[in-house]
Amino acid sequence: MEVAHSHDGTNLQRKQLAMLVAVSLGLIPSLGWSAAGPAAGPAAIDPAAGAIEFNNAFTAGSKSVDVSRFERGNPILPGVYRLDLYVNDIRMAVEDIKFVAVEGSDVARPCFTYDTLLHMGVDGSKLDQAVVNPGNACIDIGSVSADARAAADMGALRLDVSLPQASMNRRARGYVNPKMWDEGETAFVASYNFNAYSSNTSYANSRANGAGTALGADGSLVTVQNANTYALDPDGAYRPNANGNYMLSTGGSYVPVNKDSFSARSGNRSSSDINAYLGLNLGLNVGGWRLRSQESVTWDQSTGRTRYNNVNTTASHDIDLWKAQLTLGDSYTQGVIFDSTSFRGLTIYSDDRMLPDSQQGYAPTVRGVANTQARVEVRQNGNLLYETTVAPGPFVINDLYATGYGGDITVIVNEADGSIHTFVVPFAAVPMLLRPGIGRWAVTNGQVRNDSLVNGKPYFVEGTYQRGINNWLTLYGGVQSTYRALYKSYLVGAAVNTQAGAFGVDITNSHTSFAGANQNLSGYSARLSYAKNVPTYGTTFAVAAYRYSNANYLSLQDAVQGQDTLTSYRSSDINVGAPYRNKQRLQVTLSQDFGGSRGSMYLAGSRATYWNDANSATTYQVGYSNSWRDINYSLSGSRTYSSSSIYAGSRYDNQFGISVIIPLGAPGRNRPSLMLSTTHDDYSGNNDRASVSGSFGDRSQYNYNASASYSDQFASQTTTSASLGWQAAYGSLSANYSYANRYQQAGVSASGGVVVHPGGVTLAPSLSPDSPIAIIEAPDAKGAAISSNGQSKIDGRGYAVATGLMPYRMNDVTLDPLGTSMDVELQTTRVQTAPRAGSVIPLKFDTVSGRAVLVHATQENGQMLPFGADVLNADGQSVGTVGQGGQLFVRGAEDGGTLLVRWGDDERTQQCKVSYQLPDRVKGQDALTTVDAQCH
Questions:
Q1: Which residues pair with 720 in a beta bridge?
Q2: pLDDT of the residue at 445
Q3: If you write DSSP's letter for every residue of 439-507 in order, what string do you get?
Q4: Where do the PapC N-terminal domain residues begin and end (predicted)?
């Protein structure tokens, strides 16, 4: 039988409820402890000061309220309390803090373990190891420093610890001690994505050498200009693809078509097919290693073939000392300095996620001088980013968080004498910029992984490094080289932060020597990037420009593909460096926020030209978006100019469109919306669409969409479609259907995750094996929801999967008891963890099970029992206190029992017994049982 929530199950701790009630009513203040004993400030109680008188206005003079136990001394009883731990006003964790009795005093003081002190940021080298050492499990806060102080606010379940800076390590904000990074337990994880669809398409045959229609490789209907026009297939060779030929469509692009659907016969044909796809992401965690494999299985009814494909397989492990990751198997190079390359081999790279939040991304170091003890504010675009107090003399702020506001940083120094002085630190960012002292690197050794290569896959090495030198300069460089003399490239660059904006410039030199051909190619490429944010006007501007010295500049992928082509044709006459090599590229983007109700606009443009050919492509895009009341609308337009021998000259393609989203019905979580859109394309015609989408259910677990569209491309056609989805606690299901006069399609899909762990098998609505997850164990708490995790709930075995955790960060995982049985009490509703990447973390939430009863008890004279009176069970154990209205909450009494209520030492006038009997349980009923009883 249990009345009060307890953390360690001891009888003594059951009295916490009385103290919490008193605190919540304002009957007692916060409770403090300093190095010299109970804190002497207004928040503490001095036992030597005599009795404390409480204001009876809180209880309206009721005689049934007994708070005499709180009239002397600190009411915190010895025991273990789960409290929010704050150090110098910064929340650190949720900890089980032990309070121990002090001889000769009623004041219980908190004590700390050595690991807890280190987690709080205490500098272990400055501690007296004779007193403060790992073997001491109960360390007084006064042992850290004479100025240290701990204050408990039991009403808020919070413990504030004040430590002088001299006793602390200098750490960046957001720092999490690597000792707290949890690699979790051995587990198997898997996520799946299944999709199956059935299609039925009708089409017309046409002449073999003329314009007509054909069935595309993807099952769609394609109008073809000429059956004998071909283009490069995806691997760069002039030949039919496996499904037929590539033909020139009336839209001007080359598309793959089924050769059997384009014949000399005429008339109508139809085809039907059923396809299925299953994608699997598999993972095994063991001994700190994370093994991952991505697989896919496809099935086609028309061919009767089932195909299995291993997409990639990797094994990864953290390297804490270097703040890096080691990956073996199939992966990609970082793609920051050189283009990303798929490979099979080994890579070691620095992992920014292991750095504190305030060391990630780019932000400048702020340096200044204070004349007095000053308060320093760091602002950007009027937003306060950081505030601190500094001593007289030079100061340095090097742990600003990377921000999305953009614009220069204003530093305001508020001196103690009332004077204020300010200065500005330029701030603009390009991707290459790093904050001072931060390095980013990667080393890769492996074999190029490209399924289109048929004549061998060369081995290569790649190394890159970036280093933030100071506020305005970051240097970077890299090298790529194949094992043999096929390819080498070198890159050097710099990124500069100035008041005019941020610039990045680098130069790459490549050397290619093709085996079996007398072709030694060499060239340079130059890249310039620029970014500027003008927050005063809401303007963001970015430019990226690329220039190639000649047609002989090749990337690693170009060189590998060229060697494969030369080997295939066994000819040295093919100049693989000539056709369609980039000459220059330019990309410009401009976004403008007009502020308030005036909306925002973007402009974008790009131009590409090529060597040894008249090819060029230029694109302009513009868009505007705004809202009126609850209605959102946007307009967009683009113009593309292409010049190529394929088009026998040049052509223009203009596109524009408008879309409107209108909420329907009253505001609410499941409010549906209507979307209307119309688009025009010079080549594909007009398309009008209307759709209604929304969700329903108490947790928005169901979603739906219905749409109708009209297109005049080739032949006018109206298409209607509908879909319905359900995101359950253990997976997601959806179904869809589309109908048009030339085709019908129906499909179903399912997705979710599975975790096999020491506690068994647990399902999840979604799962990414590359992200950390937590296995929540809450016995008997079926139906409790994970507050921050969508539809996830505790299953019948007491387990659930929590996803969305941030690696190397302190994460709060919380349970919502709504939906659980009344006979189950969650003693813990929030747990913290700092998982490693890809780890599976077990998290235990303590629960207490037993029949819950609310006893309405009165004394023999009809008066209510005194509020705050002690309640003891038949064994004399304290199980709680009397609540308002003489109510007693009891858990664990299946049939009934007897309780002793005591509000004084006089057994005749200040004690009585409550005996009660419970009715039989009603099968399927899950409600709090209420009984009336009299205390004799």
A1: 708, 739
A2: 96
A3: EEEEEEEEEE--TT--S---EEEEEEEEEE-SSSEEEEEEEEEESSTTEEEEEEEEEEEETTEEEEEEE
A4: 53-196
C-beta neighbour count of 189 within 10 angstroms: 25
| Band of residue 57 on the pLDDT scale cut at 50, 70, 90 | low
DSSP letter string, 848-885: EES-EEEEEEEETTSPBPPBT-EEE-TTS-EEEE--GG
Beta-bridge partner residues of 396: 367
The residues pairing with 588 across neighbouring beta strands, listed in sequence order, are: 543, 605
> Three-state SS for 71?
coil
Helix (H, G, I), strand (E, B), or coil: what is residue 112?
Answer: strand
**189: Cβ contacts below 8 Å, ≥ 6 apart:** 282, 283, 284, 285, 753, 754, 755, 756, 767, 769, 773, 840
Both tokens assigned to 225: 């200009």
Adjacent-strand bridge partners of 896: 917
pLDDT score for 39: 44
Distance CA 568, CA 216 (A): 28
Q: Rounded to an integer, what distance in angstroms lies between the CA atom of residue 804 and that of residue 359? A: 22
Q: Could you tell me the two tokens for 253?
A: 């692009």
Residue bearing the bigger pLDDT, 340 or 55: 340
> What pLDDT digit, counting tens, does each position of 533-560 carry?
877 788 888 888 889 888 888 889 888 8
Cα separation, 631 vs 275, in Å, equals 40
CB count within 10 Å of CB 183 equals 20
Q: What is the pLDDT of residue 893?
A: 61
Pairing of strands 835-844, 182-184: parallel
pLDDT, one tens digit per residue, over 701-746 is: 899 999 888 887 655 678 888 999 998 888 899 998 888 877 788 8
Q: List, for residues 258-301, the tens digit of each pLDDT value.
A: 544 444 334 456 678 888 899 899 999 999 999 999 888 888 88
In terms of Cβ atoms closer than 10 Å to its own Cβ (0-12, 13-18, 19+), residue 637 is middle
| The residue type at 812 | D
